[in-house]
Amino acid sequence: MRTIVLLILAFSWALQSEGTEKDDPSPIIFIYDASGSMWGQLQGKSKMEIAVEVLSSSVNALPDAQKIGLVAYGHRNKSDCKDVEFLVDVSEGTKSAISSSLRSIKPLGMTPLAYSAALVIDKLRTSKMKATIILVTDGIESCDGDICQVVADAKKEGIDFRMHIIGFGLKANETEQLRCAAGAGEGQYYDAADAGGLGAVLNEATSETVDKPKGNVSVYAVKNGVPIDALVTAYDQVAKREPISVRTYRDTAFFYLPPSKYNLEAKPLEGSDVNMITVSGVQSFDEKIIHQDLGFDGGKVRLTTTNNGANWDCMIKVIDQAGKVAASFRTYDKPKEAEVNPGTYKVTIQALRIEGLSTYSEIDSVEISAAGVTPLAYEFDSGTAFIDAKVNGTSVDAVVTVTDSKSGKNVAGGRTYDRGKEFLLNPGIYSVKIVPLGEFKDRSPQTITVEVKKGEAISKTLNF
């Protein structure tokens, strides 16, 4: 049997009785799951201990004037699906009373999720209150109830509430009904894996109350088809309001943006290889909901580098607009792909083994789209020059220096080692200087001019 901690946090009284101010906050009603699985362990503590600590902390952080109440179920009878008790009434509830009651509860029985929610909603029905309902559960319904149907029916009836649901250590295949209920209750489903996560989502859930306008913008963040947790901040480009943020918790998140045009900045909260993305010009309206998908999917750049038409080995760097190298790789004589975050990049290409003044190139303003492949190709040209030094018909060791004739820049060099030296050069005219070594080092150097043509080989032998 799983345990469910139900928290119903309502932050605004919509009291309709005479003499009550319209701005008074709604009461907070906690529905606490005290079923047997709360004895389960997480990080060396029982889930009961974690829930009591986190809920007590959340209660203590509320404004002093906030009205609060407490409901518990599963704490008196082991097999009773109707074991639900209203422990602290909102008309007289205090922070200390809530904390004291939480610590006195001992987990025991079933998890009547739907029945407990139905009883609390019935209180809203008879009292004409509006409330925010936050359900924190470490398991699923154990009494054959359908909380999604309960919530949907109540909404159709016109009962004014908002329901958020927190899955406390739930598996992905256990959340469908809870997500359904949160959606029907015009709220948000959250995941919490531990005490820190539970506290964080409670803080957010308690801030998204029924008194706030209904969400008119929804956002959903994914990377490679998998939803991720992201913080989305909206910046008003017209009225310049203070930024408004929402966290996705690996699900669709709703927030209210007053009608205007916004830029959205989405920062992933998981996956350090993912950078922030920006979506510009998102228009919000009061009369309809706008949805924005936020794709953190990597885009690929595919490099094909050739020399005289044949695949060639090159070093590649993909550099973002801030000057940071997003990817660096070697082609190894074949087309090669690299995945980076979507954006605009500069791609640098350095040919290997070729020497000359045209062995490096840059391609600016390369747009790489999410989940797409951007093909790039670059062609280098070269020819070969074979240089040999001989004495009396026999090759000797010599130093060879190759200089571009027009610029005077030294582009290559090496030794012949008694067998000659071949240079792979960009097409052009070069000045080649040969200086004998060893026993022939007293021979005078010689300088010749050679022209290297694309795809052609030239051979020069100098006799000393």
TrEMBL record:
Boundaries of every VWFA domain copy = 27-210
Give the source species: Algoriphagus oliviformis
- Superkingdom of origin: Bacteria
Pfam families with a match to the protein in the record: VWA
- The name on file for this protein is VWA domain-containing protein
Residues making up the signal peptide according to the UniProt record: none
